Amino acid sequence: MRLLVTGANGFVGKPLCAELRRQGLSVRAAMRSHGQLSAHGETVIVGAIDAETKWADALRGVDTVIHLAARVHVMKDKAADPLTEFLKVNLYGTSNLAQQAANAGVKRLVYVSSIKVNGESTGARPLAETDEPDPQDPYAISKLQAEQVLQRIAKETGLEIVIVRPPLVYGPGVKGNFFRLLAAIDKGIPLPLAGANNLRSLVYVGNLADALVVCATHSAAAGQIYLVSDGEDVSAAMLVEKIAHALGRRSRSFNFPPGLLRAAATMLGRAQQMERLFGSLRVNDQKIRGELGWVPPYTLEQGLRATADWYNHRHKS
After folding, report:
1. Tell me: the pLDDT tens digits for 245-287?
2. Is position 111 annotated as part of the catalytic site?
3. How do residues 119-173 score in pLDDT, each as one tens digit?
């Protein structure tokens, strides 16, 4: 089997390509430019990903595509029309790739979507694949529309589509809020999170990579949507304690009324960041476990340890 991985030089792409090679699969890494170095063996330059991307060389001889490349979610998008910019890459770029893949005789395309397609929070029960989609920002809308066009192409061409919706992904190379949390804990900055009793699902990048390999190779995955996670939901308070332990630091969390924090965050325009700390977002990943027999190879503690080791090595050497 030969697989094409888009976004191969990214946060998820690097460990995914490494896992594919470890399992003896042939990998072709799609890159945007010659300036992106790759340790993944065979590479092909495709340029910007949009409705005009030419995929013929990249798809030649490929059995399965794992599509990671995307315009990713950002907290403060400076684009004049964020939805249009997301759609260029995430919808039209994905649709173009899938249509060319089907025309080239590719058997399967695994699409990495986002749990944000389901929504931003959970109440009494975790999110599941059967829930009605509830995207609430341009990024999530673009991901849902991409899912829908892929399902249409599957019906028209016979291309097998597998959709994976991960929650927050962490691991070596992580950026954004998770990285900022690592840095704050490492610096001993007091955090007002001791009173956070929410629950959130996470997925270690090594677990996500393993799940994507299973989705690419298991016959029963065709046509399915799967949610994935580490299987160990944590509150913000618990996460701070676990990260501090992994970093070899003492947690400096203190208790502060979440309601007051939310009010202050809203006044400062940081309501979204605060919701990610105090809101709950749990996923039910029993479908992929039951149908494909997938079990995360790493525990939450192992994932956090690997992330902490990377942080310590990169930022203290």
Report:
1. 999 999 898 887 777 777 776 776 766 766 766 789 999 999 9
2. no
3. 999 988 999 999 999 999 999 999 999 999 999 999 999 999 999 999 999 999 9
Radius of gyration of the chain (CA): 20
Q: What is the pTM of this model?
A: 0.93
Catalytic residue among 111, 139, 204, 226: 139
